[in-house]
Amino acid sequence: MSATRTTKRVAVLSGGPSKEREVSIVSARAAARALEALGYGVITIDVTHDVPALVSALNAAKPDAVFNALHGRFGEDGCIQGLLDLMGLPYTHSGRMASAMAMDKPMAKKIFASVGIPVAEEAVVSRKVAESQDVLPRPYVLKPVNEGSSVGVKIVRVGDNCPPLDDLGIPPEGMIMVERFIPGREVTVAVMGDKPLAVTEITTEREFYDYEAKYATGGSVHVLPAVLPKAVYDRAMELSLVAHRALGCRGVSRADLRFDGTEFYMLEVNTQPGLTPTSLVPEQAAHLGISFNQLIQWMVEHAACDA
User: Fold this and answer.
1) Residue 176: CATH number of its domain
2) What is the pTM of this model?
3) Is 270 a catalytic residue?
4) Residue 306 lies in a domain
5) Which residues contact 166 (CB under 8 A, 6 or more apart)?
6) Is the Cβ–Cβ distance between 102 and 143 less than 8 Å?
7) Annotated catalytic, 274?
């Protein structure tokens, strides 16, 4: 794969109104720098809840493609994708339907299970119920149904007090997913187009691979390639590609899995993987000889919309 210069104009969407705004800004800056180095005309747009301002900025920019560097709700859940589809603007990463299904954790798990991908047992209950009783035998994991980057994820172990959940921004009657905790090793696989790239094992001194472990320098250790028997390694690659296809993803996605020593369990598929200095997709691409600039250019040149 080689990077070539171009005169195309690209609008880079940065920030967004989600809890992952700061991570998005870092990803957007990295993408913009790469695109400028490649000769693209780059316009960075700070995205907020002001939709008319965003539409006006995009109309003024007249981009040939949009690089969607938003993370979390509104930028990763089909909302911004639907707007760009309406405007007829090609954009990077998955379309609105795949984005919406991947971000809705209970829906994504139903889709994974329907194509034979193992998933952990779960129940979806109100925050009020989750705070008042054990919905599943301990240990279990509490997750917001529609956040990314492990935002709001909590593990409840034997002997723990049931944690208060008022820091999640979910009202008492709002819904939360309670999922069986899968002991073992955490791995991740990037899929680029129709090809899984590699398997990385993630270790951390923190309780689990949470937001800080993902983005703080030294928060985790990435073992690439993961030290696994070939058949097990290939199984992780296969499941990640099946999940990417089952959701209808395009561009680049990243699947997160747990391995209990016998089987892999799919945790989620990220349709907008990070591009920060600690992010996993650029690391896997580099492992295969694909530079960061080449990765970014590939994403832009495979931009599409569902208009």
Assistant:
1) 3.30.1490
2) 0.89
3) yes
4) no
5) none
6) no
7) yes
